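## retry 2 of 3
previous attempt timed out at serialization; input unchanged, resubmitting
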Amino acid sequence: MYSKEVMEHFSNPRNIGVIEDADGIGKVGNFICGDIMWIYIKVGKNENREDIIEDIKFKTMGCAAAIATSSMATELAKGKTIVEALNMTKQDISDSLGGLPAVKLHCSLLATDALVEAIYDYLTKKGLPVPDDVSKKHERIKSELEKTEKICLNPKAQENSLKKD
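## retry succeeded, writing output
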């Protein structure tokens, strides 16, 4: 059963859409459930001249939990510094939504991964240093997205993946 907060963010998602001139775009996927998320960020500066997430939007193809976690992740990240946003955890998102069923916790990981990918994209486009842990996450996320696209977009791969289970 979903919490009231999950249902609210699913029914009335915040920050849905695309930023056409985004500074960073993150795309993630989960090959088991087939959810795919995009997060778009626009980066500005705060009064301390630190990079902050000035604007953030998302597109998600997935279940109620995937949409709700995307919505909550954007709400939590907006106005945060890049460092603060990178420190956001799947548990932060789940807790802010009043909890998620155990089988849906992966949706909050997808949302944090999409944010990490958007920040990774921003940093690499600007030629800024990418922290080692962000590079490692990027490699894992990229691998998972490739599997997702292969399985979800290729009927033969779907059939073969089902035979392996």
